[in-house]
């Protein structure tokens, strides 16, 4: 049996940050990752048009995001082009007057949500603050599907309002996932090694894996809530409070399709459009990101789950059909599928990023609370105000890593 002071379970942003703290402390540690790669839900792949981020992509709150300086120190390229959602492309199905009307409806809803959260009342579904019969409700729910991974009826009012963002959004030209992998510390790491059980019924923890057991004085658990809630990672004795908290913080779904496009000059670079602004089951299309000949498609919530259920290729087919409806049948022969994600079907994720169900905003703090000062938890779902982001996960990993180091003395 391998013996270490601290074992870290999961090598996404939180696990990499925690591993860095353990490595810097001089304590013995081991980083265990179920996948055959680092980065977790940060995943960059090569393509003929440049790196593609299949998972996290944007350095949110970039003016205070701790990863920006770390990436720059590695010589990576920070692209400061404003995000496309601030530049809605001209679209005959969504003219300027309609775009202005939607913008006003969105701002009014956002203000109602903030005011309702501040008044100290009970938590409830964010959808209760939507105006009945508002013609923009379908598109507002589509926004929630992209932003939260779920429609507003599945989103806690108080949790939604707790998210704190500076609205400065940058990108890493080499890819966010590639950047995270470059941050791996000098700590022993085992890939393709899922932890199936953490036993805490003895003086030392025992982490069971298909490749053998690891004995540790402390463990830092950095896996998605879907993995905890499903029992894919078990505890013995059981930790029902942790499983319940994880169930209250399910992973929403945001899938992507990447299309290479011929004759890119026909599109407005770094702009965005909606396929059908009168439906929730629509896509958001980022045109020519980083001025590359690509259309990046975002699909969220129940619609994305439905497309995943139809099997590989369904999301790309839907996206191409929507684009043909906007640009004409000639476009069909000018776009070529580069990649398509299916994060709900990913056995080591089970979704994209967490949202609190109505009435469950307090579950983030419950999930993050250590057990017996020797089992610590980190990840985006543990962040009180930067959940759903890689930097939020990173910050919780730093905190958990320091706490574990202190606990082992």
What does this structure look like?
By secondary structure, the chain is of the alpha/beta class. It folds into two domains: 2-38 and 184-250 and 354-408, FAD/NAD(P)-binding domain, CATH 3.50.50; 84-168 and 254-345, Alpha-Beta Complex (Polyamine Oxidase, Chain A, domain 2), CATH 3.90.660.10. The chain has helices at residues 13-25, 66-73, 96-118, 137-147, 157-162, 176-182, 225-230, 240-247, 301-310, 314-327, 363-368, 390-408; strands spanning 2-9, 29-32, 44-45, 52-53, 58-59, 78-79, 170-172, 189-190, 197-199, 205-209, 212-221, 234-236, 251-252, 254-261, 271-274, 284-287, 294-300, 335-340, 353-354, 375-377. Strands 1, 2, 8, 9, 10, 11, 12 and 20 form an eight-stranded mixed β-sheet that branches. Strands 15-16-17-14-18 form a five-stranded antiparallel β-sheet. A three-stranded antiparallel β-sheet has the order 5-7-6. α1 (13-25) links the parallel β1 (2-9) and β2 (29-32). α1 runs parallel beside α12 (390-408). It is globular, with a radius of gyration of 21 Å. The protein starts with a strand and ends with a helix.
């Amino acid at each position: 049996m391998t013996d270490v002071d601290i074992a870290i379970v999961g090598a996404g942003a939180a696990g990499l940050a925690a591993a860095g703290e353990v490595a810097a402390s001089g304590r013995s540690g081991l980083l265990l990752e179920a996948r055959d790669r680092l980065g977790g839900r940060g995943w960059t792949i090569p393509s003929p048009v440049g790196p593609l981020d299949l998972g996290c992509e944007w350095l949110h709150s970039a003016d205070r995001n701790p990863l920006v300086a770390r990436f720059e120190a590695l010589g990576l390229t920070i692209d400061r082009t404003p995000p496309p959602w601030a530049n809605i492309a001209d679209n005959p199905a969504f003219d300027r007057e309609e775009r202005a009307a939607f913008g006003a409806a969105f701002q009014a809803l956002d203000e109602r949500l903030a005011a309702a959260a501040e008044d100290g009342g009970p938590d409830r579904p964010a959808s209760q603050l939507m105006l009945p019969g508002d013609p923009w409700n379908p598109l507002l729910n589509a926004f929630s599907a992209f932003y939260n991974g779920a429609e507003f009826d599945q989103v806690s009012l108080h949790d939604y309002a707790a998210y704190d963002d500076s609205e400065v959004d940058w990108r890493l030209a080499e890819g966010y996932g590639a950047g995270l992998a470059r941050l791996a510390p000098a700590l022993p790491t085992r890939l393709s090694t899922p932890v199936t059980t953490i036993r805490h019924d003895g003086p030392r923890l025992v982490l069971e894996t298909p490749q053998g057991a690891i004995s540790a004085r402390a463990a830092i658990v950095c896996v998605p809530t879907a993995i905890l809630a499903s029992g894919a990672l078990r505890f013995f004795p059981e930790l029902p409070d942790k499983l319940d908290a994880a169930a209250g913080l399910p992973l929403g779904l945001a899938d992507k399709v990447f299309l290479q496009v011929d004759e890119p000059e026909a599109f407005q670079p770094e702009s965005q459009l909606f396929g059908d602004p009168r439906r929730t089951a629509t896509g958001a299309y980022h045109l020519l990101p980083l001025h590359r000949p690509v259309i990046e498609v975002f699909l969220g919530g129940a619609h994305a789950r439905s497309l995943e259920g139809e099997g590989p290729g369904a999301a790309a087919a839907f996206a191409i059909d929507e684009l043909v409806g906007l640009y004409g049948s000639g476009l069909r022969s000018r776009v070529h599928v580069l990649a398509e994600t299916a994060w709900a079907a990913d056995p080591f994720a089970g979704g994209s990023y967490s949202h609190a169900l109505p009435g469950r905003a307090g579950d983030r703090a419950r999930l993050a609370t250590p057990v017996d000062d020797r089992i610590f938890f980190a990840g985006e779902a543990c962040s009180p105000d930067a959940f759903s982001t890689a930097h939020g996960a990173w910050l919780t990993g730093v905190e958990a890593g320091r706490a574990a180091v202190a606990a082992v003395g």
